[in-house]
Amino acid sequence: MLRIEDGFDPSLMRALAQLGHPVEEIGPPYPDAVGQAGMIVRHARNGRVAAMHDPRGEGGATGL
């Protein structure tokens, strides 16, 4: 089940459903019910590092 917060283009949700993904709209943007995530990626080709953090939670991504 893809739970998508309000604010995404409705055509995106329709397209995902047409591809067979069960989709549910879950209310206003940035609801507390949605998890918070951070990510770090090291690119294999050049060794560069990229980071991001979900703006709905505490924390952030900072350069190295």
Describe this structure in words.
The chain is α+β, with helices and mostly antiparallel strands and 64 residues long. It folds into two domains: 1-33, no CATH class; 35-64, no CATH class. It contains one helix and four strands; from the N terminus they run βαβββ. The strands form two sheets. Strands 1-2 form a two-stranded parallel sheet. The longest helix has 9 residues, at 10-18. It is flat, with a radius of gyration of 15 Å.
Summary, kept brief:
With 64 residues, the protein is an alpha+beta fold.
Helix and strand composition category: alpha+beta
Strand order of the largest sheet: 1-2
Could you tell me the radius of gyration in angstroms?
15 Å
Note the total helix count: 1
Average pLDDT level:
83
Low-confidence stretches: none
Number of strands: 4
Helix content: 10-25%
- The string of secondary-structure elements, in order, is EHEEE
Number of domains: 2
* Overall shape: flat
Tell me the span between the first and last alpha carbons.
36 Å
- Give a short account of the largest sheet: 2 strands, parallel
Strand content: 25-35%
